[in-house]
Amino acid sequence: MSEGGGGVREHMLNAVRRRNDALDPNPAPLREMASGHPAHKPMGSAGRGRGPSCSLTPKGGVPSQGLQSNGNMLERILEKPKLVVVEEPKDRGMRFRYECEGRSAGSILGASSTDNNKTQPTIEIQGPIDHIKKVTVTVSLVTKDYPHRPHPHCLVGKDCEAGSGICVVGFNPHTARRHSFANLGIQCVRRRELDVSLQKRRNQNIDPFKTGNTKGIEDMDMNAVRLCFECVLEWDDGRKDSLCPVISKPIYDKKATTTSELKICQLNLNKGSCRGKTEIYMLCDKVQKGLAVRGNSLT
Fold this sequence. Notes:
The chain is built from four helices and 14 strands. By secondary structure, it is an alpha+beta fold. The strands form four sheets. Strands 4, 6, 9, 10, 11 and 12 form a six-stranded antiparallel beta sheet that branches. The protein has a three-stranded antiparallel beta sheet with strand order 1-3-7, with no helix packed on it.
């Protein structure tokens, strides 16, 4: 019986070895289990978690520095160009003129403009510009309040096609990332021509925020507008991509009493007794509704 049992055991071990050889080209660990004796390890090998066997090199042989470099490259690839308004328009001080006045509509100045240093509204293409051949920017007027519908007032200037009411410029971002809009003015439309002006915008496909025709002109503020910049990128291979529309801060009509800059023309006294009975006269230009005068104590 012992000899028969030993033969069966040896037969089973041989079958296990043949199966392991077929599954694993290096069957030493399984052979150790079958034989019950550990295999001999070379002197240079180290145990788990010791010596040179502990390495930060990931599977595939790429070092950690290489992974960080690949991550930075991926971030650069995923980063997209964007349009930014780097010089906002001056919010007050400009008059919206009618075409029938026969005078120039003037120029929109930049927010940081001074008497000695004139600036204009300026945009900039930020981010990677590799393989971008041309940038085309369309500027139109939109309402001050959300959802920023197309405004019936018109833009006029050297980069505005006659009667279009919009401004279109193109430039190479590799030559200059920034573009300033000089000689760009605002021309207001008479009330009976508002619908015609808005229909012209629809024919031009000027509706940056896809507001449609849900509302009329009754609730539009005719004394305040925003500049809206729509940018199209043209690539070397002929593709074209549109960036999200960008709007400026509001621009208010100088001649409107509700939006004009408050100015004190004359003041007879700049102080009075705390006991009262001191009459102070203050003359202002275009006083707005809800105006309040507050006095402060100097002590």
